[in-house]
TrEMBL record:
SMART domains: AAA
Keyword field contains Isomerase: no
Protein name listed in UniProt: Peptide/nickel transport system ATP-binding protein
Start and end residues of each ABC transporter domain: 14-264, 381-620
SUPFAM superfamilies xref list: P-loop containing nucleoside triphosphate hydrolases (SSF52540)
Membrane topology term: Peripheral membrane protein
Organism this protein belongs to: Variovorax ginsengisoli
Family: Belongs to the ABC transporter superfamily.
Length: 689
């Protein structure tokens, strides 16, 4: 008899056995986590994926003991290094929380107290579990920040959370989680709202701590590309249950469950550029009204009578027993057929070349700052020192941009680069400090008030957070129809029919028009925002991170809607996003911004195959891919400089690996280096056309 390998005798870091968490509400009992089981070894990374409402975050909270009423863990076991956590007294559990087990939340402000400095919060966290002096605790906090790759740790310790960027706040939250060298970290969507470069920095630091400390990690996310690059195993959740579990290669290369296959097929990278995305039909069922059989059966193209009548059970794949699937027909997870483009890419590009620009921005600049009052009042305040010199933020700095009818222009860059400000200028929500906005061949500044209103109606905006942009006290019928009625596009008699037509065009059931925004899902609310924009019959939509907060399956539905509207109505788009995968799939042309300036502009195929600017090259190098396995991230180093005091010369030179002495003093001019391809970099001064 052969000896058992030593590693097989090790106690796993975490064992979850038939975990059940239910929420008791007035409407009924919700089985949010329904029989979840998995094992996590030392130094291993488990990716927990699924749509919103699948139960993945509540699974993490249940392990940590952070489920609040009306939720309650009502069954199963959670064993941490062999110790049963669900039955531990509160004092013993608190000794483990934040010490041996830590959690990183999606919003770092859920971890950080906004009224306390970083050093105060970290010192308190250290002294809560160790009997050390304040000076020793401070040194430990500073050393942990440094170990997490945070520059100037002493300065960061003295800062308040609001004085740090989003990426820096998240890194501080990770440092707090790592203060005591925990054996288990649960990370709940920690990079969802971050730019690709900041995300790469976070992932790089997470990879390093797992590799160097042997910490086990549960990475909760709906981003399959990030999970593919980081995890050892993947567990796919749907309606409170794990429906598939195996190694990254098994689950992503040989998906057995139709739901897993649908998630993979919904990714832009899994579809032909510019074509309609394959998508999962329908919505996740209500936990109050679960199907009698398989929960996925109402949305599954392979479901039969057995699926609808009896619950499915988890069983191993015949040729890979460690790969389990909860499905009656596991071999049906085949790729869906490709959806052809409405217009071939070459023909579409040629057609766009012939169009006259719908909107042009010429040397547009936008500066924000507190200016002293004019006249005698301002002079009097300055004379007694009560009015300081204005602090000016250079949000946009001399940008040229045009969009033709039917064209989709992608606008990308890190947070703070000015892309949202530029979008608001294009939509008429901001008047630029300098430069000219031309709509339909006419400068907006030269138009009468009535003509300016008509020009603004031609360009509408779709916001990132649909709930924040919808009045929660108004019914959808009024939200969608009010502007159309105000501008004479319909009358009171025909308003209801008009609203129904707009909702139907946006892919919503008109029967839902009497509901309030809170009664809809995130994807449905985004459709309401699109219907409201369409109601005034625009020629162009400015979409500011319009799919950033959506699950991959809902994202596919919204992107398909955008493409349908483009083809049916000839709509143009200025599509602002930090998701370069979405940009590559949807756009005809891409404009890259850095700290208020355009650094590169090119057709989408040209930019993604031959990026010229070092900043663009760095952005593209850090895109997570579902085809990658345990990618080593090496993001752009350093933070994006403040727009209040941008660097002289090329703004990117402090972070550029190819910077030359002249980059520190000379501003590079945006010049053509190929057909329709321009870049602002001194490396190409002799290559202009």
């Amino acid at each position: 008899m052969s000896a058992v390998p030593v590693q097989d005798l090790e106690v796993p870091t975490l064992e979850v056995r038939n975990l059940q968490t239910r929420f008791h509400t007035r409407a009924g009992v919700l089985p949010v986590v329904d029989g979840v089981s998995f094992t996590l070894g030392r130094g291993k990374v488990l990716g927990l994926v699924g749509e919103s409402g699948s139960g993945k975050s509540v699974t993490g909270f249940s392990i940590m003991g952070l489920v609040d009423p009306p939720g309650k863990v009502e069954g199963g076991q959670v064993l941490f290094q062999g110790r049963e956590l669900t039955q531990l007294p509160t004092t013993e559990r608190r000794e483990l929380q934040g010490n041996r087990i830590a959690m990183i939340f999606q919003d770092p402000m859920a971890t950080l107290n906004p009224v306390l400095r970083v050093d105060t919060q970290m010192i308190e966290a250290v002294k809560a579990h160790k009997r050390v002096s304040t000076d020793e605790a401070r040194r430990h906090a500073r050393d942990t920040l440094a170990r997490m790759g945070i520059p100037s740790p002493e300065e960061r310790l003295r800062a308040y959370p609001h004085q740090l960027s989003g990426g820096m706040r998240q890194r501080v939250a990770i440092a707090i989680a790592m203060l005591h060298g925990p054996d288990l970290i649960i990370a709940d969507e920690p990079t969802t709202a971050l730019d690709v470069t900041i995300q790469a920095q976070i992932l790089s630091e997470v990879q390093k701590l797992v590799r160097e400390t042997g910490t086990s990690l549960i990475w909760i996310s709906h981003d399959l590309s990030v999970v593919a690059s980081l995890a050892d195993e993947i567990a796919v959740m749907y309606a409170g249950r794990i429906v598939e579990h195996g190694t990254v290669a098994d689950v992503l290369d040989h998906p057995q469950h139709p739901y897993t296959r649908g998630l993979i097929d919904s990714l832009p990278s899994a579809n032909e550029r510019g074509a309609r995305l394959r998508q999962i039909q329908g919505m996740t069922p209500s936990l109050l009204n679960m199907p009698a059989g398989c929960a996925f059966a109402p949305r599954c193209p392979h479901a039969d009578a057995a699926c609808a009548q009896r619950p499915e059970i988890s069983h191993p794949r015949h040729d890979a027993p460690w790969h389990t699937v909860r499905c009656f027909h596991p071999q049906h997870g085949k790729p869906a057929p490709a959806v052809p483009m409405a217009l071939p890419a070459m023909a579409r590009a040629a057609a766009l070349e012939e169009g006259v620009p719908l909107i042009e921005l010429k040397q547009v600049a936008q500066r924000f700052g507190a200016t002293p009052p004019p006249g005698a009042v301002g002079r009097a305040l300055r004379s007694v020192g009560l009015s300081k010199a204005p602090v000016v933020t250079h949000a946009v700095d001399g940008v040229d941009l045009s969009v033709r009818p039917g064209e989709v222009v992608g606008l990308v860059g890190e947070s703070g680069c000015g892309k949202s400000t530029l979008g608001r200028i294009a939509a008429g929500l901001l008047t630029p400090t300098e430069g000219e906005v031309i709509v339909g061949g006419k400068p907006v500044a030269s138009l009468s008030a009535e003509e300016q209103l008509a020009a603004r109606l031609r360009i509408q905006m779709v916001f990132q957070d649909p709930y924040a942009s919808l009045n929660p006290r108004l019914r959808v019928s009024r939200i969608v129809g009010e502007a159309a009625l105000l501008h004479g596009l319909t009358d009171a008699v025909g308003q209801d029919d008009y609203v129904c037509a707009q909702l139907q065009r946006a892919g919503l059931d008109p029967a839902l028009r009497h509901r309030y925004p809170h009664q809809f899902s995130g994807g449905q609310r985004q459709r309401i925002g699109i219907a409201r924009a369409l109601a005034v019959q625009p020629s162009m939509l400015v979409c500011d991170e319009a799919v950033a907060a959506l699950d991959v399956s809902i994202q596919a539905q919204i992107l398909n809607l955008f493409m349908d509207l483009r083809d049916q109505l000839g709509l143009a788009y200025l599509f602002i996003s930090h998701d370069l995968g979405v940009i590559e799939h949807l756009c005809d042309r891409v404009v890259v911004m850095y700290l208020g300036r355009v650094v590169e502009s090119a057709p989408v195929a040209e930019l993604f195959t031959r990026p010229s600017h070092p900043y663009t090259q760095a952005l593209l190098a850090e895109i997570p891919s579902i085809d990658a396995r345990r990618t080593v991230f090496s993001a752009i180093r350093g933070e994006i400089p403040s727009p209040i005091a941008p660097p002289s010369g090329c703004h990117f030179h402090p972070r550029c690996p190819q910077a030359m002495p002249r980059c520190r003093t000379e501003v590079p001019r945006l010049r053509g280096i190929a057909v329709r391809h321009a870049t602002a970099c001194h490396l190409y001064d002799d290559a202009s056309i």
